[in-house]
Amino acid sequence: MVELTKTGIDGLDEILNGGIVRNSTTLVSGNPGAGKTILGLQYIYNGVELYDEKGIFLSFEENAEDLREAAESIGLDDWGKHVEEGNIKVYDKQELLRENDFSSSLELLLSDLDDESNERLVLDSLTMFQLFFDSEREQRTYLLKFTDILSENNLTTLMTNEQGTVFPETDVGLENFLTDGNIFLLQTPT
Q: Domain limits at 53?
């Protein structure tokens, strides 16, 4: 039987028939403002709050303080406490982009990726992740290696992406084929 990881997000687990497949990588795509980062924040926070599952949030777009403020603005009031206690580990753009080299960033992450107490990971976003690489082939190779590392370390992962921007040469977006599942968020006027 397939094991699932509940997101704890109202309505989403029902749509997903109980949650996300454990130890998989799921792509969360959508236009700017569709709620991809918010979904990622909720997924990590709910893991700690509701399911006693620690998580890692990798942000190539925001700094740690902006993430905390965003989390608190949507009612994730104990985000800062969970970060301080080590239940949520945040790597922000200042840390991840410091060397402008993915190998250096990966070295920084490996000890936390190997830590078996972490069960969830969010990478926000693949759009910025692509800045590390000179070619689509290099992007694809590193993304495959990275998703393998995540799976080997039993992390259930969400990766956010502006729809079709990482591999624009392909109609669907190659990132859709490099992940185990896809969630597409559509922003509609209210």
A: 4-9+18-163
Alpha-carbon span 53 to 140, nearest angstrom: 29
- CATH number of the domain residue 151 falls in: 3.40.50.300
What average pLDDT does range 138-165 have in this prediction? Answer: 87
Residue 179 lies in a domain: no
In angstroms, the Cα distances linking 67 to 124, 125, 178, 184 are 11, 13, 27, 22
189 found inside a domain: no
Between the two ends of the chain, the Cα-to-Cα distance in Å is 40
Percentage above 70 pLDDT, the chain:
92
177 falls within a domain: no
Number of domains in the chain: 1
CA distance linking residue 177 with residue 147, whole number of Å: 12
Q: What is the pTM of this model?
A: 0.91
Q: Give me the long-range contacts of 81-87 (CB less than 8 A, separation at least 24).
A: 82/45, 82/48, 82/49, 86/54, 87/48, 87/54, 87/55
- pLDDT tens per residue across span 110-129: 888 888 999 999 999 988 87
pLDDT score of 78 more than 70: yes
- Is residue 116 a part of any domain in this protein? yes
pLDDT at 171: 47
* Three-class SS state of 152: helix
User: How many angstroms separate the CA atoms of 44 and 40, rounded?
Assistant: 6
